[in-house]
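[job 0412] stage=fold_complex status=start
inputs:
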Amino acid sequence: MLVAAGPALAAEPQGGLPQITQTDTYAGQIFWTIVTFGILYLVMSRVVIPRIGNAMEERQDKIDDDLTRAGKLKSEAEQVIQEYEAALATARAAARETHREALEAWSKKADQREQAFAEKLGSQTNEAEARIATAKAEALANLKEVATEISAAATVKLVGSAPESAEVKKAVDASMTGSAGEGGQA
Amino acid sequence: MAETANGAEASFPVDPLYQFVIQPIVPIEIGGVDMSFTNSSLWMFITIGVVTALLTFATRRRALVPGRLQSIAEMLYEIVANMVRDNVGSAGRAYFPFIFTLFMFVLFGNLLGMVPSSFTFTSHIVVTFFMAITIFIAVTIIGFARHGFGYLRLFFPHGAPAWTAIILVPVELISYFSRPVSHSMRLFANMMAGHILLKVFAGFVLLLGVAGVVPLAALVGITALEFLVATLQAYIFTIFACVYLHDALYLH
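[job 0412] stage=fold_complex status=done
writing structure:
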């Protein structure tokens, strides 16, 4: 720059601002401004601006797309959750209902069984009581007979003659009805 | 005048204006008019070459997740898109490619001017004024095409008392017609002044010898500042184009 300063003065002897003194270059400067600006305008408007615009638009579209998809997925997920909760609620209610029914049925059945069992038990008890009563009566009857026979046999052994069976019977009856202890002693 | 300039030149080691001299590379003459391919034209081509290379390379993949370069390209796009949306409005979408090109052209023209021994074509009033006057004329045509003679309402604020027209209309007219001047001057003057400042400080560094570290430190700071100015002025130049366009589309 420093070295070039000398020749520059030689080239521009009139001095002053070259911007103002070099009027003969005005037309050329304007011409080349038009040419270069025109070329740049064509390149920018045809190539660069559409490229950048498209890239940014695509990105925006992609972002919007992703956002809407995310929103859709979210609402879907929410719906699924709702459905799941509803299903869970109905299932729970159904389970409770089933449980209740089962419990009811079971207790009814249990009641019936208990009742049946009680009836059976009652009838069996009655039967058994009746059987016992008959057995007792039989046993008593047998006892009288045996007692009569034994009394007759004992009388034969003791007295040597067979007593009237009717009399023996009478005596046994009398002793048995009289007192159990006396009868036992006899 | 020339002598004093030359005298000052002899004592100062750097001619701060030499950097602005247009030097023909390929002399071309069309119809007696000098259309030479110059250092200015060369740097215009380098500028659009760098912009084209950067942006086409950055966007070659159009990745969904952008890489570094693509992020830069998208950031530039976003800056201009926001500028157009905020300063022009929805009707400005049609002019987005033009505004984007304008921003790239001026921004990279300014920034590449920071390359040592390069040429800053935006430091020439012809270039900035041509761009400004083109925008001015285009905006005026758009305004009349859109509003017809209603576009003239731009020169009289809505709701002001009628008698104030005698003051307001001339003021608005002057302000309207000085738009291309201020628009072009701002960029040209900023770029020129910054570059002169850099060269002057560089001259001080050479003059002062060892003590030159002081202006050298200042030079580093000014260089950083110039990068800021280069970016900021490109932004401002573009924003004003947007503002004028907004006036044409929506009036006030």
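[job 0412] summary: The helical segments of chain A are 5-11, 18-21, 26-159, 165-178, 180-185.
[job 0412] exit 0
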